[in-house]
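Page 42, continued from yesterday. The earlier attempt failed because a stray header line got pasted into the input along with the sequence. Redoing it now with the clean sequence only.
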Amino acid sequence: MLTVIARIKAKAEKIEETKKALADLIPPTLLEEGCIDYVLHQSNDNPQIFVFYENWTDKESLENHLANVHIAEFSAKADDLMEEPAELYFLSKV
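This time it went through. Structure tokens are written below.
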């Protein structure tokens, strides 16, 4: 199993738009082969910060996800929504 933590910081004026765009990724991602969890969180302390907690069966499933059309569509508008590039952490359970 591969765990991914993705930290996204929305532009201050784009918080709600970013939240919707990120939430829209959830339904199609949960249908992808190899997706175990794909859970979106928003910081209680800073509403600009969103975090995805993801679990995938393997690296190939994650790579297929990253190449999917709904991820590409989000990436195309990410510069308009995000204050900085997403931080991605790829983790394995110890």
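Notes: The two ends are 11 Å apart (CA to CA).
Reminder to self: strip header lines before submitting.
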